[in-house]
Specification:
- The longest helix is centred in the last third of the chain and has 38 residues.
- Strand 7 and strand 8 form a beta hairpin.
- 28% of the residues lie in helices and 38% in strands.
- The chain has one domain: OB fold (Dihydrolipoamide Acetyltransferase, E2P) (Beta Barrel).
- By secondary structure, the protein is of the alpha+beta class.
Amino acid sequence: MQQINDHINKSKNSGDNKYLTFVLKDETYAVNILHVKEIIEYGGLTHIPMMPIFIRGVLNLRGDAIPVIDLTARFTKEVTEVTRYTCIIIVEVSGTSSQMEIGIKADMVNEVVDITEDQLEPSPKLGSKINTAFIEAIGKINNNFVLILDMDNLLDMEQLAMLEEMVQMNREEENSDKESLREEEGILAESSGEA
């Protein structure tokens, strides 16, 4: 995983035609490398009750609460099993008020590829009842089509607001826990000083 993270960091300096490809339920997707922060192993999630099926939970990443979404569940309402290849792609998206980081559960990460302008087709128009706003374009790689995701349209405003609220609640809970721990340590210090 470190090797692909290193490749992502090097690729960010070489233009905006670099894409990270990954698999969701046997389909290959891509995201512009400029949105990708890093890839981490799947695990360590705190489940949040009463959330939609596609919100897997919150991840504590170096002290930051990162909501993790399951795009397979978002697109198909099906949850895929976690395997040894399952990972989380940390991406930056436009939130309701500022940029925010979210995690995307991927069944497997493939590679960083070049997709030039002549290999891109516009997002398909599939009728008014099918929302394709989350598809930025269709890329052609080795005679195969790859859906390129539009990170800023992946979730609607209501869903983004829900994720931001969830992150804020998690931060407040952590701060409350830290405050309680400090108070307990203060009480213990006082009682041991009196003895």
